[in-house]
Amino acid sequence: MTDTVSGPRLDLRRGVAYAVLTSLVGSTAAAAAKFLGDRVSPYVIVFAQYAVGVAILLPWLLARGVSALATQRPWLHFWRSIAGWIGFMAYYLALAKVPLVDAALLRSAAPLWVPGILFLWLGVRLPWLRWAAIAVGFAGVLLILHPDADGISAWHSIGLFAGIGLAVSMATTRQLAASESPRAIIFYYFGIAGLATLPFAIATWQTPSLADALVLLFIGVSIYVTMALYTAAYTWAKASVISPLSFLGVVFAGLYGMLFWQEIPGWLTLAGIALVIGGGVFAVWLESRGTTDEI
Questions:
Q1: The model's pTM
Q2: How many other β-carbons are positioned within 10 Å of the β-carbon of residue 111?
Q3: For 86, which of 24, 117, 156, 190 is 20 to 30 Å away at the CA?
Q4: What distance in Å separates the CA atoms of residue 126 and residue 15, rounded to the nearest whole number?
């Protein structure tokens, strides 16, 4: 990961490879978090991943000095970090109680929330076709939430906030990227979100076994690598190519769920997956044709 991008660099095969690896590594980290189950508090898992991320970035900070963190948008960093933190907390809380593929899809639905957030926050207007694509995706989200006679599943509802938190994080990151270096953005995110998690991690702390501690380390490294791969993918290929590939994470999550937890998706889940992916791909296609003025 570099601090700056010197100009447009396009290499389709390299960009696609990075995108596929992003989905694979990210879904592997989620499976590892689910593996920890009730043995390790979700708050400890989240804190560990942020602490590992800060540790990985420390050599860069020591080499560049505190000036590398100079910013004119401290509050935007703060809200971006808190939104990302809420997203991960909701994700890991849901992972312990719902099938892996359900939690992964609710988080992967984040791009569907972004246009609405940009509309409310910055007044970005969207044509009706874009809203139609979003409506298709949200129909899929509703199926994943499994509404029944008793209402919506509580744990699926918590998983919904994983996508909302990620969407806010994505929207604010777009603003920060115009003036901040990638490493500074990630360092602020890891640092602020880690501090936000610390009191909860202390309150729920139970010393993990050596095996579980190694899994925590694996999750932290995987999340950092996922972010680096994500940045590289968008460096080498256009968003219109990369964005639909993010849904591969749902496929990988489904495979992990079937392999390790015998989680076989029902027809409602499969229909929801189809609608969310269809709505997301349609929205990206519209954007690639220049039919939206989204930033």
A1: 0.80
A2: 22
A3: 24
A4: 28
**Alpha carbon 229 to chain centroid, angstroms:** 13
Answer for the pair 90, 156: CB distance below 8 angstroms, yes or no. no
Average pLDDT over residues 192-205: 95
What residues contact residue 105 under an 8 Å CB cut-off, 6+ apart?
Answer: 140, 141, 144, 250, 253, 269, 272, 273, 276
What does the alpha-carbon distance between residue 284 and residue 130 come to, in Å, rounded to a whole number?
Answer: 9
Environment class of 128 (CB within 10 Å of its CB; exposed 0-12, middle 13-18, buried 19+): exposed
Residue with tokens 């994943």: 144
Instruction: Tell me the β-bridge partners of 151.
Output: 148
pLDDT, tens digit, for every residue of 24-63? 999 999 999 999 988 999 999 999 999 999 999 999 999 9
Beta partners for residue 148, in sequence order: 151
Task: Report the candidate in 229, 224, 228 with the shortest Cα–Cα distance to residue 248.
Answer: 229
Which residues does residue 129 pair with via DSSP β-bridges, in sequence order? none
Amino acid identity of residue 16, one-letter, is V
